[in-house]
Design a protein that fits this description.
Elements (H helix, E strand, L loop, with lengths): L5 H5 L5 E5 L2 E2 L6 E2 L2 E5 H4 L13 H5 L3 E3 L16 E7 L5 E8 L3 H14 L8 H6 L2 H8 L5 H4 L12 H10 L16 H13 L2 H7 L13 E3 L2 E5 L2 E2 L8 H19 L5 E5 L7 E3 L5 E3 L5 E5 L35 H9 L1 H5 L7 H14 L6 H18 L12 H4 L4
Antiparallel strand pairs: 1-4, 2-3, 5-6, 6-7, 7-9, 8-9, 10-12, 11-14, 12-13
């Protein structure tokens, strides 16, 4: 049995600890008593507090989160160079849910950004990342700040922070799940460690923060954020949208409809946040077992506050401005982002893989889809034309969906409600 406490585990010297645990072996029904070797560098704990957080470390160490092959006979940790891992999550050690353990950046990208940090302070490679970041001018301002303001996040590369309003920044602080006491817009309950972790996450990839800001249980089309350990975070497993590229017309019509509906919701919601895609890709969307579609990668989503629509003035760059590998700074002006932007990207880069050539049994329908798709995906056309074409596609795909028990998220409602 493992008897160490969580904090004593973290601070065991020097870089690696062994965790003795008991587990049920699958092979021949025999019991195994393996030793799981966690390298702190595998989890990223050796770089904390330049990490995401530690909210799930205890569950991981107690085997309530297991990498996929922990349920097999070999019981080995997966290769550290991978960015995502299939795993299993349990609350009661009996019922398991499929989840994904992922890094905000690949290990290679993490190594590059860590080198940048050391070099920025004229330190040797392998320096104390945390000490360098703590000594920066930006973090010194964070230490004395009671409230997260635009000045503290200016020049950070995330689309989330291109046009930040005070209302959005307050929401980040209030919803931040890696602190013990959340709910206040003031950061007085944040420790120095909490502030560095939040700043690091904002600088590298805001994906886990978007999941915390707009949780699925409140109706947002985002997967759940279970928590993190070091530089690893845990979210539910979903089936990627690319697996529908060769699916039946009924399946693709349903996914296409949901994709457009989600895009509409992001731009038109009760909180008056205009969310838009800066890019879309195959692994950005996925479905649960009930076939409901969710956004599983929010790292390319930007947010403009409709209630506080102000231009964001960029300050000077520092090491936090370029911790990612691309370090893009060619941001569009907040006032020049069109309502049609997200639809254009979806119609041009994703929908063709789903629906082009799928409805040839009905040439009229296929011709309509192709025509509207061409209009919706043309960034040279006016916002009005693109939005009208997207609206026509929504109505068309809605009519092509079948009322089938396979689509559990809307069955049996579709039998009795014409809105489905």
């Amino acid at each position: 049995m493992w008897t160490c406490t969580f904090w004593s585990f973290i601070f065991l010297a020097p870089w690696e600890v062994s965790l003795n645990t008991r587990a049920e072996g699958i092979t021949n029904g025999t019991k195994l008593q393996p030793v799981y070797n966690f390298g702190r560098n595998f989890l990223g704990l050796d770089k904390c507090n330049a990490c995401i957080g530690t909210s799930l470390c205890k569950k991981l160490f107690k085997e309530e989160i297991r990498f996929e092959n922990w349920l097999s006979a070999d019981l080995k940790l997966p290769p550290s160079h991978r960015k995502t891992y299939f795993a299993n999550y349990s609350v009661d050690a009996e019922t398991w849910k499929a989840v994904v353990i992922s890094r905000l950046q690949s290990n290679y990208q993490n190594e590059l950004s860590d080198r940048k940090i050391c070099l920025s302070a004229a330190k040797k490679i392998g320096c104390s990342i945390e000490n360098v970041l703590r000594a920066t001018e930006r973090f010194q301002k964070w230490l004395t700040a009671d409230r997260l303001t635009a000045e503290l996040v200016q020049t950070l590369p995330s689309p989330l922070l291109r046009c930040p309003s005070q209302r959005l920044l307050d929401r980040i602080v209030r919803r931040y799940a890696e602190v013990r006491d959340s709910g206040s817009v003031l950061m007085r309950h944040f420790t120095d460690r909490d502030k560095l972790r939040l700043l690091y996450t904002l600088s590298v990839n805001t994906h886990p923060l978007v999941l915390q800001l707009f949780p699925g249980i409140e109706g947002w089309p985002f997967v759940r954020y279970f928590g993190s350990c070091g530089r690893l975070m845990v979210t539910p497993w979903t089936k990627p949208i690319k697996e529908f590229y060769n699916a039946s017309p009924e399946d693709t019509a349903d996914v296409a409809y949901q994709l457009l509906q989600i895009t509409h919701l992001l731009g038109n919601n009760d909180l008056n946040y205009f969310m838009y895609y800066t890019s879309v890709h195959d692994n950005m969307f996925g479905t649960f077992e009930d076939e409901r579609l969710y956004i599983i990668d929010t790292s390319t989503i930007g947010i403009i506050d409709k209630l506080e629509d102000k231009e964001f003035v960029h300050g000077k760059n520092d090491i936090f401005s370029c911790l990612t590998s691309d370090c893009k700074t060619d941001f569009a002006s907040c006032g020049n982002i069109s309502e049609a932007l997200s639809f254009t990207k979806v119609c041009r880069d994703l929908l063709p893989h789903l629906v082009v050539g799928k409805f040839t049994s009905s040439p009229t329908v296929q011709n309509q889809i192709d025509r509207y798709l061409g209009l919706c995906g043309d960034e040279m056309l006016s916002t009005k034309v693109v939005l009208e074409a997207a609206g026509s596609l929504i109505e068309l795909f809605k009519s092509l969906r079948s009322c089938d028990p396979r689509f559990e998220y809307r069955y049996p409602e579709c039998k009795y409600n014409k809105d489905y």
